Amino acid sequence: MSFEILSPEGLRCDGRRPHEMRKLKCEVGVAQDADGSAIVEQGYTKVLVTVFGPHECTNRNKRDNDRAVISCSYNKASFSAGTRMRKMVTDKKSTEVSVMIQNTFEASILLEKFPKSQIDIFVQVLQGDGGERCVAINATTLALINSGIPMKDYVCACAATIYQDTALLDINHLEESFRGPLFMLAVMPKSERIVQLQLDNRLHNDHLDKVVKQTIQGCKDIQVLLDRKIKERTVEAAAAYDIKPRV
Question: Under the phi-then-psi rule, with left for phi > 0, alpha for psi from -120 to 50, and beta for the rest, what region is 99?
Fold first, then answer.
């Protein structure tokens, strides 16, 4: 069965226009046994993140006397894509994404406030329909904020591709299967500082500027939604203790 990446009317296979993102829903504090947790859904991609720590570093060889270390575990459930995945391939990719997430948040968490400590981040993809890495980063940001771990800024991620000279933002699984250039950015929106950049397949230099601008704007839009959820959560928590929050 064939499908159109972009119709003559300028609509994508799920009805969005090129610059439009999938609907984003999020919740924080969903895991009672964790120090921080969050679930983020973008379209049909759903990711759960739990955070534990800071706590005493369990590996003396990795302990840093001046700052905390981050341990990240990324796992994509075998049922998340609707079909069983080969475990060896999945494990290799999971390790790569784990390292990517770890490096991303080493640039944003104030690790120097917790010397000789460790922060554990567990990422579980519950449902995959494209953009899992971006959703994982967005969910990790919320979980870290929920845990009270200080950060320089939100870290928000978004991806885009080029199809027939048109930039498509926040691509889904069907659009990923086209196997065009996949450009992913994770930025701290206030300063627009890029903390992670990944490019799958080749992207012509003529398209670079519009893809970068589109993904940065996408990250800023995501930050607004995440910040709104944090403020709502703060108001709810304050109401439970009959105090007036500053939001």
Answer: alpha
